[in-house]
Every structure is written in structure tokens, then in C-alpha cells.
Design a protein that fits this description.
Number of helices: 5
Mean pLDDT: 93
Order of helices and strands: HHHHH
Strand content: under 5%
Shape: extended
Distance between the termini: 50 Å
Low-confidence stretches: none
Number of domains: 2
Oligomer: single chain
Largest sheet: none
């Protein structure tokens, strides 16, 4: 068995939570606050049965759609101000 600190150190996990319930709430809130179309694209990509080339093409389509959405344009413009 690998301890949490060791798993973090070797890159097996990207974070270790001391309060799992709170971290779960934060993650759920992040998903709930994300644009519905982006979440749908993520789910579609995770469920796709593509080879690498097909998956990269799907990811490119998803990125283009995400960055051309009205919300993305608004957030990019706000960042640039």
C-alpha cells in the first residue's frame, strides 16, 4: 500500500485531501458552475471510443467550441481589460 504523501510525491495523485467531504463539495461546485456545454464535451470525450488520432480530433473540436462560445469571449475580454 502506498501512503498518501508518497502517492503525491511520485505523481500518482495531484492532491491529498485532509477533509474529503469538503474537497468533494468544492469539486461538485466547480462542475455545477462550469458551462453546461463544456461539461457535455468532457463527458463525450471520456465516453468516446477513439484511437489517439480520433481522440485528438475530438479534443480539438471541443476546444474550438469552448473558446468560441459567448461566455469564453466575455471572460477573455474581461481578462484583457
Amino acid at each position: 500500500m502506498i501512503e498518501a504523501a508518497e502517492a503525491l510525491r511520485i505523481g500518482m495523485v495531484d492532491r491529498v485531501a485532509s477533509d474529503l467531504a469538503e474537497e468533494t463539495r468544492k469539486l461538485a461546485r466547480a462542475f455545477a458552475d462550469a458551462p453546461a456545454g463544456v461539461i457535455a464535451d468532457i463527458k463525450r470525450a471520456l465516453n468516446a471510443k477513439n484511437d489517439l488520432r480520433g481522440q485528438l480530433a475530438l479534443e480539438m473540436e471541443n476546444q474550438m467550441r469552448a473558446f468560441s462560445s459567448a461566455e469564453a469571449v466575455e471572460r477573455i475580454n474581461a481578462f484583457l481589460r
